[in-house]
């Protein structure tokens, strides 16, 4: 391994500022003369707005402006668009209401912006907000997905009868029907994937400035994708996108939430232009619960057909997915874009799914780590466990029997994905070993003897990563030989700054302290897709290798001029040295870079400088995979659940920094376990949010979460030269089904077959009580 | 407006503040010490933890005026010049942070934990003690490892 290069667990460069408290998060920058924005939000899930009285509020000292939907209409503000379009029930493109940034005459979810107050201080803005009188005429609403398509349910949009926005089928219906017709056994399960709040620790935040001289906005914001956000905001504000510079500095967590443009980004820009001052906005946590796009929220029916030898014949799913009141940028994508994960890691000859996307009077649904992958994984992995229980089989054995063999890679699932690589049987064997899967029944008996229920659950993970194949980057070498790296991807905890340095050390033999990484800034690079979909390591590996090879090739031409030999006589060697072959003449990268910046020494027409910028396109996506095992113990007297063990075998291909990979797995797993255990967004019948703070919304805490054992089972990807697969989301994709399988396994002996997340003490206790409690006979066994 | 006097990171400060100013906003907005963060509005997340007279407190539920004559130390005041505090170094060494937003509060809580409970902290104790600090990125495992190692390192640095 090369010093500082690929494969080493180097401590992170960015930590040097983050542990000192000298990070640069958006709310840390307060431009001189900046004003503050506060958003007055709808108190009703569905209401007509008769009028908004702002006169008294305007009298509050320090108030600079109060803007409402009428002003937005006058200024021509639009809404955000969906990046995915499918079909509606009539087979035509689905109805797509623009995601409004401020309510006009109707509000459609609690928390929808109704008025914007700009003031010298936040307190003044809040005081003014209290004096604004909104004349609401409340209407009956529907917030619960289960009721959204009930006969007579209130309609979110008159254009969508039954609130049905998208109706799509995937897979092969007739082949699947045939498979079920000849099945020896059909397993079935119904479950609900709860609605959750992404809850990045840094709330959403933005600072906007309008330059009258340049006719241009500068937006600093906590976002994952400045370029895409800029395009969307340009559409809302009615400007060409080059009139917006979008910059993301340090971002305190994203997980998909901050990849979706939200109304306040447009509002803070609009406000800055209207008042002619920089304007800051930062969400409060309670605001975030109301107005951050929520995630997941699906109702699933899944069926698995098996033959006499317990081999899978077909999978059938029916899914209802909540979209909320509007379509966010990725709302439809979450329900449909990653449905390919249904095929799992199995030989599964026939799959058919019917997906209904429904509007409700709730904040729009957006992506959250996995964005449809954990949902798809739940469908296949839960129904496998139900089949195993039906057949009296070890769920591990049932899986093993149906895994895609390693020697069939690359493997066309016949559904959506073609897997490039992976050794699923090896992965399963490894996690069974480190979890002592085969010794579990002893542990269960021991728990029963102590009056505790114990369960174990397995789930294989496979997820598409780097599905967005394109990215732009630049490597620029200055006259001292220092290197600046710019890409269109954005670092919000994944360690890009460290990873890029390791890649540069690998490809250009330059130590980390001579490499700088630029912020993701639309003025620094004209294109970027941003960070999401577990893509950055895969994309960066190929992108930086390509850029580095171009810069080295250019450096060889310059070195050839310096050393007076032909370019093909130059080698680039360890220590960042250009050496003339079969001679003692050489020049360092710094010397070559300095020479390259002296055009007077270069031949006429020779392009000076030593830098390169281009876009690259990966040959294909990758499929990080793995196998998870979760073990739980439940106290039937209190309903308290302990995660007593958690183990992962992971295949991320080639790891650039194994320490960072493990950290991504830890964090991903805990986000899945958090949803299984306690996270739960609940709206009441009036569409009021009942879980609107960290007091009511149970975030996973250190004492609730297990230590996670990880074993590598890496097989290199065939879709990029470095063999990297990515690792951002797999932890969550595996943890949700592994945890729910473990809980079902613990409760199964009591005859409980359907237990939905979250596994809070109250819900577990009630389920156990309703099932008659833990029989004494079990405890005596 | 009333005047408040306190020592922040070893320097005396005297500023007029509105009576309802929270310590965290005094630090962030008035003194521009932005290392202390705000992650919630219900005193749950711990991103705002600082030391007041040696005790770890949540600055989001502390009035600036209540810190009259107090010694306040924030994350920016923890390290001694260029050298990281052992707890800061341990968080980096053990990858106890990802996005870094909860990190200042985590580190200040961890140092407070060591001062109360000593330098030999077992993992269960650390997990229990972190009840008031939420992290969304790390799954806590490496934070626990970092605090354990940082605490042991503090044993060799009685001044830390």
TrEMBL record, chain A:
GO molecular function (one): oxidoreductase activity
A Pfam family per the record: MoCoBD_1
Keyword 4Fe-4S: no
Keywords, ordered alphabetically: Molybdenum, Oxidoreductase
Transmembrane feature ranges: none
All residue ranges annotated as the Aldehyde oxidase/xanthine dehydrogenase a/b hammerhead domain in the record: 20-140
Protein's UniProt name: Carbon-monoxide dehydrogenase large subunit
Origin species: Rhizorhabdus histidinilytica
From TrEMBL, chain B:
Pfam families registered for this protein in UniProt: Fer2, Fer2_2
InterPro entries to which the protein is assigned, alphabetical: 2Fe-2S-bd, 2Fe-2S-bd_dom_sf, 2Fe-2S_ferredoxin-like_sf, 2Fe-2S_ferredoxin-type, Beta-grasp_dom_sf, Diverse_Oxidoreductases
Keyword entries, A-Z: 2Fe-2S, Iron, Iron-sulfur, Metal-binding, Oxidoreductase
GO MF, one annotated term: 2 iron, 2 sulfur cluster binding
Domain spans labelled 2Fe-2S ferredoxin-type: 2-78
Name this protein carries in UniProt: Carbon-monoxide dehydrogenase small subunit
Source organism of this protein record: Rhizorhabdus histidinilytica
């Amino acid at each position: 391994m090369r010093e500082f290069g690929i494969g080493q667990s180097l401590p992170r460069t960015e930590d040097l500022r983050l542990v000192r408290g000298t990070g640069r998060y958006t709310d840390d920058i307060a431009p001189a003369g900046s004003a503050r924005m506060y958003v007055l939000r709808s108190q009703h899930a569905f209401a007509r707005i008769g009028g908004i009285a702002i006169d008294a509020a305007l009298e509050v000292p320090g108030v600079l402006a109060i803007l409402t939907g009428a002003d937005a209409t006058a200024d021509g503000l639009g809404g955000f668009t969906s990046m995915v379009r499918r079909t509606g029930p009539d087979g035509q493109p689905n109805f797509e209401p623009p995601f409004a940034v401020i309510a006009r005459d109707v509000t459609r979810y609690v928390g929808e912006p109704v008025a914007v107050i700009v003031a010298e201080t936040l307190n003044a803005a809040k005081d003014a907000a209290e004096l604004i009188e909104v004349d609401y005429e409340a209407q009956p609403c529907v917030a619960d997905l289960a009721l959204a398509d009930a006969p007579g349910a209130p309609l979110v949009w008159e254009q969508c009868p039954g609130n049905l926005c998208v109706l799509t089928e995937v897979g092969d219906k007739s082949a699947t029907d045939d498979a079920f017709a000849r099945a020896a056994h059909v397993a079935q399960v119904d479950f609900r994937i709860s609605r959750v709040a992404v809850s990045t620790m840094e709330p959403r935040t933005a600072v906007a400035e309008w330059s009258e001289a340049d006719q241009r906005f500068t937006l600093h914001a906590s976002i994952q994708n400045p370029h895409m956000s800029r395009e969307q905001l340009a559409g809302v504000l009615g400007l060409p996108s080059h009139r917006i510079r979008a910059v993301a500095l340090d971002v305190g967590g994203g997980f998909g939430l901050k990849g979706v443009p939200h109304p306040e980004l447009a509002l803070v820009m609009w406000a800055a232009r209207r008042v002619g001052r920089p304007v800051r906005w930062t969400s409060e946590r309670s605001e975030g619960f109301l107005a951050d796009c929520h995630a997941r929220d699906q109702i699933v029916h899944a069926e698995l057909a098996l033959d006499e030898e317990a081999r899978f014949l077909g999978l059938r799913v029916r899914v209802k997915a909540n979209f909320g009141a509007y379509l966010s940028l990725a709302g439809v994508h979450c329900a449909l874009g990653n449905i390919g994960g249904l095929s799992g890691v199995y030989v599964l000859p026939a799959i058919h799914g019917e997906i209904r996307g429904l509007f409700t009077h709730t904040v729009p649904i957006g992506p959250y780590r996995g964005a449809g992958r954990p949902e798809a994984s739940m469908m296949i992995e839960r129904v496998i466990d139900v089949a195993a229980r039906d057949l009296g089989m070890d769920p591990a054995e049932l899986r093993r029997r149906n895994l895609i063999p390693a020697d069939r890679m690359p493997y066309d699932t016949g559904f959506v994905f073609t897997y490039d690589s992976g050794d699923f049987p090896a992965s399963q064997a490894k996690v069974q070993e480190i979890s002592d899967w085969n010794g579990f029944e002893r542990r269960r008996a021991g728990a029963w003897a102590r009056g505790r229920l114990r369960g174990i659950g397995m789930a294989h993970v496979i997820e598409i990563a780097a599905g967005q194949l394109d990215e732009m980057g630049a490597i620029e070498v200055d006259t001292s030989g220092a290197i600046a790296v710019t890409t269109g991807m954005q670092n919000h905890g994944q360690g890009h700054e460290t990873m890029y340095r390791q890649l540069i050390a690998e490809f250009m033999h330059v130590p980390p302290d001579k490499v700088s990484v630029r912020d993701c800034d639309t003025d620094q690079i004209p294109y970027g897709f941003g960070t999401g979909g577990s893509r950055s390591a895969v994309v960066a590996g190929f992108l930086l290798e390509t850029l580095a090879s171009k810069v080295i090739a250019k450096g060889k031409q310059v070195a050839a001029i310096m050393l007076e030999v032909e370019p093909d006589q130059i080698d680039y060697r360890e220590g960042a040295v250009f050496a003339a072959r079969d001679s003692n003449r050489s020049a360092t990268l710094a010397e070559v870079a300095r020479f390259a910046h002296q055009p007077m020494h270069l031949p006429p027409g020779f392009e000076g400088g030593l830098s390169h910028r281009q876009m690259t396109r990966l040959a294909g996506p990758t499929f990080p995979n793995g196998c998870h095992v979760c073990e739980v113990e439940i106290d039937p007297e209190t309903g308290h659940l302990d995660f007593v063990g958690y183990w992962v075998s992971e295949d991320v291909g080639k790891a650039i920094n194994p320490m960072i990979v493990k950290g991504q797995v830890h964090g991903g797993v805990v986000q899945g376990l958090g949803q299984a255990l306690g996270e739960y967004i609940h709206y009441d019948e009036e569409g009021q949010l009942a879980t609107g703070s960290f007091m009511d919304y149970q975030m996973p805490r250190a004492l609730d979460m297990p230590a996670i054992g990880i074993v590598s089972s890496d097989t290199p990807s065939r879709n990029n030269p470095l063999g990297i697969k990515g690792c951002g989301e797999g932890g969550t994709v595996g943890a949700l089904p592994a945890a729910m399988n473990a809980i079902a396994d613990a409760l199964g002996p009591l005859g409980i077959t359907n237990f939905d997340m979250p596994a809070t003490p109250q819900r577990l206790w009630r389920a156990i009580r309703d099932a008659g409690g833990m029989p004494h006979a079990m405890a005596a066994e | 407006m009333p005047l408040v006097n306190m020592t922040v990171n070893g320097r005396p400060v005297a500023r007029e503040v509105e009576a309802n100013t929270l310590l965290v906003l005094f630090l962030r907005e008035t003194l521009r010490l932005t290392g202390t963060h705000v992650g919630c509005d219900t005193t749950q997340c711990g991103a705002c933890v600082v030391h007041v007279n040696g005790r770890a407190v949540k600055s989001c539920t502390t009035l600036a005026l209540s810190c009259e004559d107090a010694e306040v130390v924030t994350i920016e005041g923890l390290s001694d010049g260029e050298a990281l505090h052992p707890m800061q170094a341990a968080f980096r060494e053990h990858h106890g942070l990802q996005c870094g937003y909860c990190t200042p509060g985590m580190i200040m809580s961890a140092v407070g934990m060591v001062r109360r409970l000593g330098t030999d902290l077992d993992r269960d104790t650390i997990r229990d003690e972190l009840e008031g600090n939420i992290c969304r990125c790390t799954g806590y495992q490496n934070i626990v490892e970092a605090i354990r190692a940082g605490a042991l390192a503090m044993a060799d640095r009685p001044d830390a």
